[in-house]
Design a protein that fits this description.
This protein is of the alpha+beta class and 187 residues long. It has one domain: Peptide Deformylase. It has three helices and ten strands; from the N terminus they run E-E-H-E-E-E-E-E-E-E-H-E-H. It has a five-stranded antiparallel β-sheet with strand order 3-4-5-8-9. A hairpin with a 6-residue loop joins strand 4 and strand 5. The longest helix has 14 residues.
């Protein structure tokens, strides 16, 4: 259980209208912001108390409508806090990655889908001290960063799926792939 400001942080599910609202820009880069980011980072290790780690989390997913997210690079294992991030450029080339979300179902009811996104994304953001950064991400990390920025704009990954039959549970993914115990990292 992660506590911040005497409040237990809890993942909001997609039926909560807060997840469909735009988040506000962060104006103050202080210890409060840094402490909150640390709480979010801890929460990523097991956000739903089901033993599954996530590779991304946005403040709005725990009810704080500010532009802050933590993204974990699946290759390096390093996490990065992004404040007021915005995509400034994308590649025309698209890729599809299997995405899930801790705010779109839990356990056996968590939903996944192959989501088309630009293969590369250039992102401007601030670190927790207020320093501006511009970074370019590709592949799965590009998907993770775009997914988290979408949260701050009230968008969920399922919004990109036109055919509801393309949205799957873990059991359906296993059945379609004829493999059991696929390890998925929910974004």
């Amino acid at each position: 259980m992660i506590i911040y400001n005497d409040k237990k942080l809890k993942i909001l599910q997609c039926t909560n209208p807060v997840l469909r609202e735009k988040s506000d820009d962060v104006k103050e880069f202080d210890k409060t912001l840094s402490d909150f980011a640390k709480s979010l980072n801890k929460m990523m290790k097991d956000p739903l108390n089901d033993g599954v780690e996530t590779v991304g989390i946005s403040a709005v997913q725990v009810g704080y409508k500010i532009k802050l997210c933590i993204c974990k690079n699946p290759r390096s294992g390093k996490s990065i806090a992004m404040v007021n991030p915005e995509v400034t450029d994308t590649s025309t080339e698209q890729s599809e990655e299997l995405e899930g979300c801790i705010s779109v179902g839990t356990g056996a009811n968590q939903l996944f889908a192959y989501v088309p996104r630009p293969m590369r994304a250039k992102v401007k953001y601030f670190d927790l001290k207020g320093n501006e950064n511009i970074s370019e991400y590709g592949g799965q990390m590009s998907h993770i960063v775009q997914h988290e920025i979408d949260h701050m704009n009230g968008v969920l990954f399922i919004d990109y799926i036109s055919d509801p039959h393309d949205i799957m549970t873990l059991d359906e993914i296993n059945e379609k792939s004829n493999r059991k115990n696929i390890h998925l990292e929910a974004i």
